[in-house]
TrEMBL record:
Native organism: Pseudomonas laurentiana
Family of the protein in this entry: Belongs to the membrane fusion protein (MFP) (TC 8.A.1) family.
Gene Ontology molecular function terms on file: efflux transmembrane transporter activity
Protein name as catalogued: Biotin/lipoyl-binding protein
InterPro entries registered for this protein in UniProt: MdtA-like_BSH
Annotated Gene Ontology cellular component terms: efflux pump complex
Alphabetized Pfam families for the sequence: BSH_RND
Domain Multidrug resistance protein MdtA-like barrel-sandwich hybrid, residue spans: 64-182
Length: 295
């Protein structure tokens, strides 16, 4: 009985070994890629990393900082909202500047009253007061008017308005947060960020490409440049229209890492543009692959 049990166990062990050897020895079939890898559409081309940004004559996006400090009382827009020029975006507590406006208005009324009384007296009897006293009262009224104008200008700074037509990309504050001329403090990156980031109108977007310094000599002449971008994580390829070269070679910034980190490599920014209407899932700040060829 014991020998039979040992024989059965040995057979089971051999079978288990054979099954394990079969399973471990199989070559698994590779899964097809989710999307085709980046490849050049041209016979010869220059590859460059690119980042999508709003299209405008200079800079990348519009960053808005307050000129005053204080707690935020209202955020009047939301991210993704299409806005028009001079539209209120954020309101900051204005109790003190509003009180200054009321004080300036009271001072103006007092100065105007004093001037009116002195002018009336002077008209009744020019000898009742001196011309110098009348001029002083008039100057006091002018100063009070200027003080009120300055107080109103200071009050207006407590409502942040849109400088141009565009789209809200990011709001880095909320009601109750304290902001200053440095912007809003971000607890995640432990640095100050702009209060609001917005883009120009998004009928077209720009692509800023960074061409390696050793490839600059191979760039075609501006009138012969053509380019195509490939959006990461998809098979979408978009033809690009050349806009301009930013004629300043600078150290490359690691776009996917901290913005302060630089590497010992210099790049030349080249800007292109494309129409956004057929690309609803493309956003400023997105990284893309760009191939630059020659017509």
């Amino acid at each position: 009985m014991r020998n039979r049990l040992l024989f059965v166990l040995a057979v089971i062990g051999v079978l288990a070994g054979l099954v394990a050897a079969y399973l471990l020895g199989r070559t698994p079939h590779a899964l097809p890629p989710a999307f085709a890898p980046a490849s050049s559409p041209y016979e010869t081309a220059i590859y460059a990393n690119g980042i999508i940004e709003s299209e405008q004559s200079g800079g990348s996006n519009i960053v808005i900082y307050p000129q005053v400090s204080g707690p935020v009382t209202q955020v009047l827009v939301h991210e993704g909202q299409v806005i028009t020029r001079d539209m209120p975006l954020v309101a900051i507590d204005d109790a003190v500047p509003r009180a200054n406006v009321e004080l300036a208005q009271a001072n103006l009324r007092t100065a105007q009253d004093q001037y009116t009384k002195r002018l009336a007296s002077y008209r009744l009897d020019p000898k009742s007061i001196s011309k110098d006293t009348l001029d002083t009262a008039k100057n006091a009224t002018t100063q009070a008017q200027a003080a009120l104008k300055a107080a109103n200008a200071s009050l207006a700074q407590y409502v942040i308005k849109a400088p141009v037509d565009g789209v809200i990309l990011a709001i880095n504050t909320t009601a109750g947060s304290y902001v200053s001329s440095q912007g809003a403090y971000d607890t995640y990156i432990q640095q100050f960020s702009p209060l609001v980031v917005m883009s120009a109108e998004q009928t077209h977007l720009a692509v800023r490409c960074y061409v390696d310094e050793i490839l600059i000599a191979r760039l075609p002449a501006p009138e012969h440049i053509r380019a195509q971008m490939l959006i990461h994580g998809s098979d979408i390829k978009v033809p690009l229209e050349f806009v301009r070269v930013q004629p300043y070679v600078s150290p490359k910034i690691q776009l996917s890492n901290q913005r302060q980190e630089k590497v010992d490599l210099r790049v030349l920014p080249v800007l292109f543009r494309f129409e956004k209407k057929d690309l609803p899932m493309v956003y400023p700040g997105q990284l893309v692959d760009v191939f630059i060829g020659q017509k």
